[in-house]
Specification:
Number of domains: 2
Keywords: Plastid
Radius of gyration: 19 Å
CATH class of the largest domain: Mainly Alpha
CATH architecture of the largest domain: Orthogonal Bundle
Strand order of the largest sheet: 1-2
Order of helices and strands: HHHHHHHHHHHEEH
GO molecular function: tetrapyrrole binding
Pfam families: GUN4
Largest sheet: 2 strands, antiparallel
Domain GUN4-like: 95-235
Shape: globular
CATH superfamily of the largest domain: Gun4-like
Number of strands: 2
Structural class: mainly alpha
Protein name: GUN4-like domain-containing protein
């Protein structure tokens, strides 16, 4: 068995566990496989196509990283494979309210995080308007209680999968819980407050993957702590994946 095959086998073994340590190891290994040769890229493409073609499989941020690398490979055969099997991205766009998340997926694929952040806030307000039959372009925390789990799950997956697992509401929730629900600690951990100063929008925020874990999306811009607290406490985050 050559080095490349060993690396691919190791990746398969690591992928059976989705904790932070395993994901970090998988991301590192994917980069090594990608850097090997065209053969390495082809093996990653095959793995990605297998995952995306299996409706029972839930793609992960590792698949998102593979997709990101292959999309930037500039190799015709690789790009042809992506275009054939993953033309619109790798995240299924599910909504109980017929909300279209395709533009959000495109922005996140291209790592246009600031535009994606603005669109995320718009989509959450659109979701609220659809459910509440109102014309507001902001949220009340009570609106969040009515949000379908599948819509929040879709938005979160888009952010998480196309950021190498760095961003997303579920990541923010994890940081919030690790901060014992202390908002001041939370703001500092996710980089919304630096040296006791609240970051100013947009110049003080980081719009790339050098940002701290949970830095995006900027949900506090919606309407203060109550809305964010409602989002982080939504039942979706305690549901099993197969229930969504």
């Amino acid at each position: 068995m050559n080095i490349l095959d060993k690396q691919c086998n190791e990746l398969d073994i690591l992928s059976q566990v989705l904790d932070d340590i395993s994901i970090a190891a998988q991301l590192k290994l994917v980069q090594e496989i990608y850097d090997q040769s065209l053969n390495g890229k082809q093996k990653l493409l095959k793995k990605l196509i297998e995952h995306c073609s299996n409706y029972k499989y839930n793609v992960t941020c590792v698949d998102g990283f593979i997709f990101e690398l292959l999309l930037n490979s500039h190799d015709f055969t690789i790009l042809h494979g992506l275009n054939k099997y993953c033309n619109n991205g790798i995240v299924p766009l599910k909504s109980d309210c017929n909300i279209d998340y395709s533009t959000l997926q495109k922005l996140l694929i291209n790592q246009e995080f600031q535009k994606a952040d603005q669109l995320t806030q718009f989509k959450l307000c659109e979701l609220s308007r659809t459910l509440g039959n109102h014309s507001r372009d902001w949220l009340y925390f009570t609106d969040v209680f009515e949000f379908p789990s599948i819509d929040l799950y879709t938005i979160d997956r888009l952010w998480n999968i196309y950021s190498r697992g760095l961003f997303g509401i579920s990541i923010q929730r994890k940081v919030w819980l690790s901060s014992n629900l202390d908002w001041e600690k939370f703001w500092c951990k996710i980089g919304w407050k630096v040296n006791d100063n609240i970051c100013r929008y947009p110049k003080d925020f980081k719009w790339d993957i050098t940002a701290p874990s949970g830095h995006l999306p900027l949900l506090n811009q919606l309407r203060g702590v109550q809305v964010m607290s409602a989002l982080l406490s939504h039942p979706v985050w305690t549901k099993a994946i197969h229930d969504l």
